[in-house]
Design a protein that fits this description.
Layout (H helix, E strand, L loop, with lengths): L1 H20 L1 H9 L13 E5 L7 H9 L3 E6 L11 E4 L5 H14 L5 E6 L5 H11 L6 H8 L1 H11 L6 E4 L2 H11 L3 E5 L9 E3 L2 H14 L15 E5 L4 E10 L2 E10 L11 E4 L5 H18 L4 E10 L2 E8 L7 H9 L3 H10 L13 E7 L5 E7 L1 H4 L5 E6 L6 E2 L10 E7 L2 H14 L1 E5 L29 H8 L9 E6 L8 H19 L3 E6 L3 H10 L4 E4 L11 H11 L8 H8 L1 H10 L7 E4 L14 E5 L13 E2 L2 H14 L4 E5 L5 E7 L7 E2 L3 E4 L13 H5 L9 E3 L7 H17 L5 E8 L5 E7 L9 H8 L4 H18 L4 H4 L4
Parallel strand pairs: 1-2, 1-4, 2-3, 20-21, 20-22
Antiparallel strand pairs: 5-8, 6-7, 6-8, 9-10, 9-12, 10-11, 11-14, 12-13, 14-18, 15-17, 15-19, 16-18, 23-26, 24-25, 24-26, 27-28, 27-29, 27-31, 29-30, 31-32
Helix pairs in contact: 1-10, 5-6, 6-7, 8-9, 15-25, 18-19
Length: 838
Amino acid sequence: MKYCKKIKNIFLQNCIAFFLCSRYDKIIYFLSFRIYSMNHFQGKTILILNSGSLKKRFIFQRLKKLGLTLVCLNLEKNWAAPYVDHWILTDTYNHTDSLEELRSFISDHPKITIEGAITFWENDIPLLAKICNEYKWIGNTFETAILTRDKYKMQEAFLKAGLPAIPGKLIRKKEDLEMAMEEIGFPGILKPVSGSDSQFVVYVNNKEEAEEAYRYILKNCTSDYDSIYKLNRGVFLYQKFIDGHEFSLECFSQHGIPHVVGIHEKTAMHLPFFMETGDYIPPRIEKEEEDALIKFTESALIVLGIRNSLAHVEVKLTDKGPHIIEIASRLGGDYTFKNILEVHDFDLIEAGSEIALGINVTQKPKESKKMIMGKFLIPNQSGVINKISGFEEMKKKSYVVDFSLSKEVGDAVLVPPEGFESVGWVLVEGDSYAEVEKNMEEMLHETSIEVSPFRSYSSIGKTVRKDRFSPALLARSNFRRNKIEKIQKISRKDQRKLHIGIVSNEYSELDNPVEQELTSVAKMVMSSLSERGYRVSFFDFNHVLRASESLRESDVDIIFNLCERINDSSLLEPHAAALFDILQIPYTGSNPFTLSLCIDKIRVKKLLSYHGIPTPQWDYAYTITERIRDDLDYPLIVKPSNTDNSIGITNDSVVSNKEELKTQISYVIEKLGSPALIEEYIEGDEYDVSIMGSEEGDLEVLPLSRSVFKNLPKGYWHIYPFDAKFSSDPTYKNIIVQRPPKNIPPKLASLMSEIALDTYSILDCHDYGRVEIRVDKENNPYILELNPNPSINKGNCLPSVAELVGLDYGDFLEKIISLTINRYQHRPPYSHLQTNGV
């Protein structure tokens, strides 16, 4: 073919240029060829940009087996925690912040020497180039990174170099599409200029289809669907459709020399979309065709300047020769690594790490008689998975290489046009293509995946599409409710299969005791649930925007809500639960209405008084000039009306006369910035009534906890001030805590339990909570307050009394999760917005 000479000339020219311009690289390459031990990764530290999704777990497992120390630059700590040695938390889409956070990490950790960087995530290839340039680490240039991300610029580079290029036009508005259709003609392809995974790549055969497809991708191809489209900026590409058989070539380049390791032959896609269905390795083509693909790919890698990285190349073999569809300067996704390792005995992860660290790749791909067929498990329609069976049994089959299921029963799966998801993939092997196809047929026959429509309050099935790309199409963000549906279907025996998101606040050891307690409880819950087999991820709501974005994109099934601060304010605590409702992710504990109400102790007092719940006589003040009731009996206690953890309560909070009252009200309002709640001081023991449950059938009052103050020295009021909970003042160690209480009348215990239950129900508390009660000398109980989000650290009141009924700490946490599941199974979503229980 005519262009073969061009390819050969380009290849030879670039190779000559390499040997002339890169003498140092050449010398190093040959001097160190194979002159290193098998443990050449030991003691080396590598920076990983972005952990990616859970599907990338195998990469981190392999990197650790190689002996590398891993530093991960990522939005948040997640499933990769068992493999990552050090985290740098930042949004990798913000390159300025990412570079600054990396600089800070390197400055703050002088003993950690990072020797190179790599990413396996398409989104972060440009950032990787910037980082490698700043630290003189080995990698591709930023220009190359952009060429491999921008499909239009890539084809322009091929055209400029004399390689066959696919004609295309950039589309920024409808008028651009009109001009592109006229100039390029049909059939054509519309695609994001910077996308991934064949998402929103659409085949069109006429003007009407092109306009429909443009409306479709314009509406749905946004960062709400996938964060990668932050880079797309509303720019699309209209290209000529190139007919031919499609292949992907797995490659690496080192010192500017390209190497093709293996070739996949892709199976037919279901137009008008280009979602991959599977492939064969090795390909079913002649040696001449294979050689043409390899030479063309090597030339294309040189043209784009891919000098030091892995590369995943998609090529079409037409009757006029190969045409590059696109090139990614990273490892291919899904089962690419597995196939290349099985068929060619070549470890792409090891090779990529060697390149990044400046170690010469000495592996050579081997020829194999083994043949592997891969297939993606793609349902015929979008919906909720109600059955997955047969896969575990297939592990026993000798021809099954591997399989991966990224979805579970109860998950939503969105296939074109709603989304571009699969349930997973399977790999089978054989000694011939006929045998491998027969084995795949048997594999699919022995397994089963069933998908049913969403429930009545879901959106699938409720829209009538006027055409195949109707503007009314629902994007993935509208299917968040599948998480609720998954919880509604899950059984108790499958509870530990859930992915739990721990939402809390993380502080350093230098912060105050309250903040240290918030950090401690989150770590304790994470550790305990992990020990029981749950997959857990942590989301720090001290960085709420970053955490909420990460949470929105996560596959968390249920949130364990421990959040007590947003923007460093406890007043915003309820907004966390409101956010979970918006994201449609189930969560433990009370709803935002209850959390908000209980912060306002004045309104709680009004509500309890209305319902006849006994509370100490009281009044309140929003300003220091307000008149306080004259019929209140001293002593009185003055509290901030909207703080928690006894913040603002000291021994001086109890006052004995009007002068002290005025002083304390002024302190609360002017110094603390809170309205003041004034109550009659009840001299007597204090009881904590811990309650679990939400429904009439699962509510349970746990054993009581009693605090006795008789041993406090003279001058100390019998209360729990802040210092009693969070200081080292030895005085308050004289408070006697009895769990369960000793020698109290059964009728008193029953009465306290009953009024606590009424309080819990009136305020619509969910899953767990703690009611504080004071009992006077005549054994009259008075409700002080309800804490709907009490601390549940090991040793705190609630877990401790739960232990008295046989629930160790892990059992206690699991009971909270099961109560949450039960609540979602018996109440419609957002039931707290329909009735608040009052």
